[in-house]
Amino acid sequence: MSIFKFKIPLHTQILIALIAGAAFGAFFNVGHDTLIINYNKKGELLEETIEKWDKIVFEGRENEKVFYADEQTAILKHFKKIEKKKDIVIEVHKAVEVNTYTEVITMAKEKTIATAIKPLGNIFIRLLSFLAIPLVIATLIVGAASLKDIRKLGRVGGKTFGIYIITTAIAISIGLGAANIIKPGEKVSVQAKERLMGTYQDDSPGDIDEEMGIDILDFLVQIVPKNPINAMADGRMLQIVFFAVFFGITLTLIDKSKSDPVIRLFDGISDVMIKMVDVIMLLAPYGVFALIAATVADFGFDILQTLVWYMGAVILGLALQTFIVYPALLKFVGKSGPIKYFKAMRNAQAIAFSSSSSAATLPVTLDAVENKLGIPKQIAGFVLPLGATINMDGTALYQGVAAVFIAQVYGMDLTMAEQLTIVLTAVLASIGTAPVPGVGIIMLVIILQSVNIPPEGIALILGVDRLLDMCRTVTNVTGDGAVAVTIAGTEKKYNSL
């Protein structure tokens, strides 16, 4: 009977779900030589599956284009951007057979059971995401108010901001170093470059205003919300952080008999949010399985061969930051044990990898740092929400590799001054990067423009951005927790790990 009492730890369940989801997605993968089209024929709506074509020809006044067998993604993107779909004729060539379709309404990839279960994963991420803002507000208010002495708050805030800036600068430097040593851009063939540009050009934010850049004064002004309720509704994290910290500081300046009930209220809200995390995490293995299965099924592995050196440079840099820089920070500055830290952070890292969102992972990170590592709430509640907003080490590192990679593909040699410009720009850009999937691409445009690299080159890396986004979010979240533990160590607020 004892075997039935054995309980698999949650982090092990999540790891099993990750592996099983990847295998499930690989088995039930989306066919990359299959398209599902819906079209009108004599007033009747028909659906047809097109497989293993030699080429597909779009004929129309402004949309004439030819695609070949390995260009499924490019075909779908071209069809999507056509405004007057009724005016086009699509010819599908198979050996000696040619089929013609008119009045095509939709064109899409086939669906498999692996992609059909993705809503389960989306529900899991939404459950975590809806906790993020009330948890940030409650923990920051309690954290700021609990520090009581404004000088002490300034000391903790200064340390936090300073360490975040330093680790981000180290991360971007590691990224630049990896890209300069590996030189992934020089290993991309002309044919591969043309194929990538043709497939992902429409997704590249290269048409962004050329004057886009970082205005420090405007950035500082925008941190102050006109309406904190609107900031909460729109998820503007920096504005939410400003309001919550200001609110918490002000609580220390009013009569204690009036401030204590308010602090207890938000402390209670924070505890409720953390308990909700415990409940939601019961769904974690199922949500992670669904997310990874859908990603692997839809992603495809063909493009990995083309960009393997680029991906290797990014992942190597992330590994160095995660397993060398952060343990050194914990050991030598925080006087803490890295092994226990990584054990405590396993759940948060798995959720970060699955969700690609520091904000969605924040409730799990807070739970790990407070409850498993014993970091005081006033430290964790202040440092972690701030980190989820401004500390994007993984994103900054990836942007450094991407900038050098794109420059190498275009045959540009970046000078030391230009690479230092990338460091400075990436550090500043990471502060304003929203903690949600994919936004790093937009910030990359600013970095490319700062050293006159064509932003259209982003099309070269979009095919693998989702996978790398998952990896760099793990580094982002690991860095947040490491800084919280380090700050607590310097404040001597807990026993040595």
Globular, elongated, flat, extended or rod-shaped: what is the shape? globular
Question: Which band does the percent of strand residues land in?
Answer: 5-15%
How big is the Rg? 25 Å
Structural class, by secondary structure, is alpha+beta
What is the typical, i.e. mean, pLDDT?
A: 85
- Low-confidence segments: 206-212, 493-497
Q: Helix segment count?
A: 21
Helix content: 55-70%
End-to-end CA span = 37 Å
Instruction: Summarize the biggest pleated sheet.
Output: 4 strands, antiparallel
Determine the oligomeric state from the structure. single chain
What is the N-to-C order of secondary-structure elements (H for helix, E for strand)? HEEEEHEEEHHHHHHHHHHHHHHHHHHH
Strand line-up in the sheet with most strands: 4-3-5-6
Q: What's the number of extended β-strand segments?
A: 7
Q: Short description, anyone?
A:
With 497 residues, the protein is of the alpha+beta class. The chain is built from 21 helices and seven strands. The two termini are 37 Å apart.
Descriptive tags:
single chain; 497 residues; alpha+beta; four-stranded antiparallel sheet; 8% strand; disordered C terminus
Question: Could you explain how this protein is built, in words?
Answer:
- The protein is of the alpha+beta class.
- It has 21 helices and 7 strands.
- The chain has helices spanning 10-27, 72-81, 113-116, 118-146, 150-182, 190-200, 216-223, 228-234, 237-251, 256-280, 284-299, 302-306, 308-333, 338-344, 346-355, 358-372, 377-390, 393-409, 416-431, 439-450, 465-490; strands spanning 34-41, 44-51, 55-59, 65-68, 89-94, 97-102, 104-108.
- A 4-stranded antiparallel β-sheet has the order 4-3-5-6, covered by helices on one side. It has a 3-stranded antiparallel β-sheet with strand order 2-1-7, with helices on one face.
- A hairpin with a 5-residue loop joins strand 3 (55-59) and strand 4 (65-68).
- Helix 13 runs parallel beside helix 21 (465-490) and helix 15 packs antiparallel against helix 16 (358-372).
- The chain is globular and about 85 Å long.
- Mean pLDDT is 85; it is low at 206-212 and 493-497.
